[in-house]
Amino acid sequence: MWNGMTGRLDGKTAVVTGSGQGIGAAIARCFAAERARVVVAELNPETGAAMAAELKAAGASALFARTDVTDPASVAAMHDATRVAFGTPDILVNNAGINVFRDPLAMSDQDWDRCMSVDLEGVWRCTRAFLPGMIEAGRGSIVNIASAHAFQIIPGCFPYPVAKHAVVGLTRALAIEYAARGIRVNAIAPGYIETPIATEYWNTFSDPELERKRAYELHPPKRIGRPEEVGWTAVFLASDEAPFINAATIVIDGGRSVLYHE
Q1: What number does CATH give the domain 13-190+226-252?
Q2: I need a surface site. Which of 77, 116, 199, 256 has the fewest CB within 10 A?
Q3: SS3 assignment, position 183
Q4: Long-range contacts of 172-175 (CB under 8 A, 24+ apart)
């Protein structure tokens, strides 16, 4: 993980929500590889603590802060722990999210609320907690993990794409609101990424390997994305290499979303 480390984020502090596994874990590893101090803001205490321990063992500065993005008190505690350990963070990655796929009219109010509370309101709760410090410091980069669902509607996935559309809108609105205060806000919209969730989904089929190959065939490169490909994009957006990129959303889907379908 550390070979070729260049220190693109040397001296910066990054908070990554939902970084105990999958895309969030990959982002945390990529940030640590570039010498950022990383706060693993994760709900699951086992995976969160393990990720922070992994980063520390590899020589990084890391902190695990158990975080429920649906709970304002939990977010506030994570914010305070970050400030005590590392000072005002330079980077916030709002990655925590859940899949909620329901039939619209059969969906319960609880399912709707759960989806919005994590996937949309959780992004805002964390952003609202860290924005004042970033404004006071006159610098900050916020990267929101949206989804290809924010642009391409797949039947049977309601209300997840509603929340992810809103995350893109929130990204753009905040980016314009605070650009003159030294804050950049951007988003990444991953498509099909090979995470444990994807593997678990394939394993629900009688032939998981066939289902994996079917997913690969949907994409022009004949594979799906890797978590670290999202991670390195987050590094770029958060770094000083992207000082004039603001209110943007980068889609990482191998070109599937622009593929012509008969």
Answers
A1: 3.40.50.720
A2: 199
A3: strand
A4: 172/247, 174/127, 174/131, 174/142, 175/246, 175/247
